[in-house]
Amino acid sequence: MKFTAEIQIMPLPEVIEPQGRTLQKHIHQLPIEGIQRVRIGKLVQLEVQADSEQTAHDIVTKACEKLLVHPLIESYSFALQLKEEFTAEEAESEEVADHPEVTSEEE
Q1: Tell me: the pLDDT tens digits for 3-61?
Q2: Exposed, middle or buried, 3 (CB in 10 Å: 0-12/13-18/19+)?
Q3: Which CATH code, of 3.40.50.170, 3.30.70.3400, 3.20.20.150, 3.30.1280.10, is assigned to 2-98?
């Protein structure tokens, strides 16, 4: 089975985050009111091949803890979604539907 994982990585609340501070400083110069705090993080998407949702969850957790997230300054959360698999014929049909050929008839 194929799963899609969307991982949100954010700086820990106590970490001084320069991009967010800069944006927060300049957003007040625009006519936008009500924004009190800005934090900027990352969104990582992974496609995971696994036998079960639990196995996919374990793979994504391992990737986050060993590669994607710096645990001293960042936290993470993620969502898994089962990805529909297409047969070669269905994929070709889907591709044609997404990109129909344009033909013109000469008069």
Answers
A1: 999 999 999 999 988 998 899 888 888 888 888 888 999 999 999 999 999 999 999 99
A2: buried
A3: 3.30.1280.10
